[in-house]
Design goal:
The protein is mainly beta and 121 residues long. It has one domain: Jelly Rolls (Sandwich). The chain contains 1 helix and 9 strands; from the N terminus they run βββββββββα. The protein has one helix spanning 109-114; strands at residues 21-29, 32-39, 44-48, 53-60, 62-67, 70-75, 79-82, 88-92, 97-104. The chain has a 5-stranded antiparallel β-sheet with strand order 1-2-9-4-7, with no helix packed on it. Strands 3-8-5-6 form a 4-stranded antiparallel β-sheet, with no helix packed on it. A hairpin with a 2-residue loop joins strand 1 (21-29) and strand 2. It is globular, with a radius of gyration of 14 Å. The N and C termini lie far apart (29 Å). The model has no long low-confidence stretch (mean pLDDT 88).
Length: 121
C-alpha cells in the first residue's frame, strides 16, 4: 500500500539534487509501477528499451524525449507514451525537470491511440 494516503502535490514529493537524477517509487504492484523523477539540468537516461508501455507526465520544467529516433519536447502538464519495445531516452531540456512515470505491465493500445490523434473512449 502506498504511503500517500491523502492528497499530495506530485512535484513536491521528489526534490532536485545537483548533478543527479532522483527517483521515488510511489506505487509498485504486479500491474506496474508509478515512479517520480527529478532530473538536474543536463541529466538524462540513455537510450534503452522496456518490455512494457510507459506514460511520462512532465510535472515541472521541460523534457526532451526521444522515441524511435524522433525527439519531442514535453512541457509541464503534458504527457507522452513510450510504447513497449521501442528505443527511448529522456533528458532535461534547458534546465531541470520532474516527471511521473507510469509503467504498465499489461499494455492497452487504446491509450496509445490518444497520441496519434485518436479520441478518448
Amino acid at each position: 500500500m502506498s504511503e500517500i494516503m491523502r492528497p499530495a502535490a506530485l512535484a513536491s514529493l521528489v526534490e532536485y539534487q545537483d548533478g543527479s537524477i532522483v527517483s521515488k517509487t510511489v506505487l509498485k504492484s504486479d500491474a506496474g509501477t508509478v515512479t517520480l523523477f527529478a532530473f538536474a539540468a543536463g541529466q538524462g537516461l540513455s537510450e534503452h528499451t522496456a518490455p512494457f508501455d510507459a506514460m511520462v507526465t512532465v510535472l515541472d520544467g521541460m523534457a526532451e524525449v526521444m522515441i524511435g529516433g524522433q525527439v519531442q519536447t514535453v512541457a509541464a502538464g503534458e504527457m507522452i507514451i513510450m510504447p513497449a519495445g521501442i528505443p527511448h531516452a529522456v533528458k532535461a531540456h534547458a534546465g531541470p525537470f520532474k516527471m511521473l512515470l507510469v509503467m504498465l505491465k499489461q499494455a492497452s493500445r487504446d491509450a496509445t491511440s490518444l497520441t496519434r490523434g485518436g479520441t478518448q473512449k
